[in-house]
Amino acid sequence: MLKSKKIIVLISSILIISLLGVVGCSNQAGDSKVIKLATAAPMTGDYAQYGEYSKEGLELALEEINKNGGVLGKQIELVYGDDKGDPKEAVSVAQKFVNDRKIVAILGHFFSGATLAAGPIYEQNGIPALAIASTNPDVPKVGKYIFRINVGDNYQGMQLAKWLYEKKGIKKVAVVYDNNDYGKGVSNVFIKNFKQLGGEITTVESYIGGQEKDFSVIVTKIKESNAEAIMMASYPTEGALIAQQARNNGLDIPLICTDSIYTDDFIKLGGKAAEGAIVVSYFHPSDPRPEVQEFIKKFKEKYNKEPNSWSPYAYDAMYVMADAIKRAGSTDKKAIQKALAETKNFQGATGITTFNQDGEPEGKDLIILTVKNGAYVPLDE
Amino acid sequence: MLFQQILNGLTIGAVYALVALGYTLAYGILGLINFSHGEIYMMGAFIAFTCISIFNWNIWLSLILAVVICGLIGIVVEIVAFRSIRHGARSSQLISAIGVSIVLQNIAMLTWSSRTQPFPQIITTKIIKINDIVISNLQIYILATAVILMVTLYLLLYKSRIGIAIRATSQDPDTTSLMGINVNKIISITFAVGSVLGAAAGILMGLYYNSIVFNMGYTVGLKAFVAAILGGIGNIPGTMLGGILLGFVESISAGFISSQYKDALAFLIMIIVLLVKPTGIFGTKEVEKV
């Protein structure tokens, strides 16, 4: 009896102390001289290069915004979290972010799996999150606090299926995908749309990214299935391996790749086998729009290299968020969420961003690229 | 398609067998599951890559150097991580091996970055077509090298004085040392031999896939461990066959059932083998040494 009383006293004192802590924190947030944002991406591990691309875009935008006086007269401070692209890590990063009361909004996460795992935590805690590269169709369905800057796979998969079937006249396609939320999502949408158009999916193969190196078995099956092209939802490392092993097995049909592969690593690792591969994207440096050209100029000045599509997404995400905070007129999370949802015709490096009611951007156009002489160039049609 | 898949399985199986031999040698002589062996495989590929791509050294010199350095790494690992706890608990040896694995992986990550690197293409790939079956010259080189290395290992173990000493040490180290054999030296040699095989496998795979990454040893190490268990860990011919068998199971199950269940089926077969014959397919009953 005495023991249980002691426990009750202990628990209630812990509760009181934690309550005080919360109050203390929220007071601090109001006095703060900076606006604290957080971003999460794979900074280490197998997919570390994506985190690097994202960081380059974010840093460029951050520098410009802060140089021009910041937002609401305050400088923006950006905190980095490393989710390794892994849903399990993403959850712990998200927990850390929501426990920091000063963080008013999240830019990220990057991979679909990470956003799908971390999203519900942000939704429950009412922190707006703007995902940078999470294309899975389920991402906007997580809740009203979850947005994304990039186009979802519903759109990309459909566009790709249409383009292949109607423009290229390819009727039989083999599908290979990385067995994660991204790969599954985009290939399912593609398969559904391609079949609806009347095309035939000869075989569907998957593998575990970051572990699988031997694709000779998959390549042999595709060859046997008499496909006219391979639709590939892969990351550069595996994409390059598939391209090489296909060529080494005498399989010489077009490779159609989703935008996840659009990095220099694919060309570097794939070498000759990557030549002629078709890559879809929403950004290419040859785009004549002034927002794109200005971004490329600034990016080249700072980093001395050509951007791929991930840095501009991150760059746009930072500006869209800054714009929303400005329109919200405060760092109140609810107000930021409302302002984000009202974003209309935002002109950025990756096209025009208008969110629909799910928090999904509308109206960005697919660009079709091909690898030629070791570089991505727009496909002549 | 069946023959093509068998050929695919044979190529990858030969590599599993080479790496698995390292597990079997370490287990045979120390009763130790050396989980750091996969990292030696990775080191072999990276050292060869550094010599060829960065220092631009002669190809043959680079390959030999990579294999020799890995042999030395094997000796150092044994001395640093296993010698002092040789008579300690099995679990501490296992933990020590996992520790070495983490250290080597992180050294590789810090030295060569976490990015996947293209392995220099020192052999131009040629394709040979026989009816419907496609064989690349790389596959032939891999199989030939694996066979040569395995035959050499067999001759070393069963036809040479060092081999007799190695086998004697694995049977009874105390009595062997009473016969005037330096057991420590023999154990070092065994680790060096295992590491050389692992490094050679790493270089072959680097060539075959044309890409290397700091954690490439993890998956292969695990698969090779399964291969060794399957064939009977501690048993040299059994391990070789275990590797080939695992390669077959993987390519046949992926080819005729689904690529999604490739790994699951390989592990399922290992579990079934362990339930039916706990010493592995070719393993012999071993009396637990005290």
* Poorly predicted parts of chain B: none
How many alpha or pi helices of chain B? 11
Overall, the morphology of chain B is: globular
Characterize the main sheet of chain A.
7 strands, mixed
Instruction: Estimate nothing, just give the exact number of structural domains of chain B.
Output: 1
What's the arrangement of strands in the largest beta sheet of chain B? Answer: 1-4
Calculate Rg of chain B over CA atoms. Answer: 19 Å
Tally of distinct domains of chain A: 2
User: Roughly how many Å apart are the termini of chain A?
Assistant: 83 Å
Describe the model.
The complex is a heterodimer of chains A (381) and B (290). With 381 residues, chain A is α/β, with parallel strands linked by helices. In chain A, 47% of the residues lie in helices and 19% in strands. Chain A has helices spanning 2-31, 48-67, 87-99, 112-125, 153-167, 181-197, 216-224, 236-248, 264-270, 290-303, 310-328, 333-341, and strands at residues 34-41, 75-82, 103-107, 129-131, 146-148, 172-178, 200-207, 229-233, 255-257, 278-281, 346-348, 351-355, 361-362, 367-372, 375-378. The radius of gyration of chain B is 19 Å and the shape is globular. Chain B has eleven helices and four strands. The interface between A and B is medium-sized, with 35 and 35 residues.
Summarize the structure.
The complex is a heterodimer of chains A (381) and B (290). Chain A is an alpha/beta fold and 381 residues long.
Task: Summarize the SSE layout with pairings.
The complex is a heterodimer of chains A (381) and B (290).
Chain A: H1 2-31, E1 34-41, H2 48-67, E2 75-82, H3 87-99, E3 103-107, H4 112-125, E4 129-131, E5 146-148, H5 153-167, E6 172-178, H6 181-197, E7 200-207, H7 216-224, E8 229-233, H8 236-248, E9 255-257, H9 264-270, E10 278-281, H10 290-303, H11 310-328, H12 333-341, E11 346-348, E12 351-355, E13 361-362, E14 367-372, E15 375-378
Parallel strand pairs in A: 1-2, 1-3, 3-4, 4-5, 6-7, 6-8, 8-9, 9-10
Antiparallel strand pairs in A: 10-14, 11-12, 12-13, 14-15
Chain B: H1 2-30, H2 37-54, H3 59-82, H4 90-112, E1 117-118, E2 127-130, E3 133-136, H5 137-159, H6 161-171, H7 173-178, H8 183-209, E4 211-212, H9 216-231, H10 236-256, H11 262-276
Antiparallel strand pairs in B: 1-4, 2-3
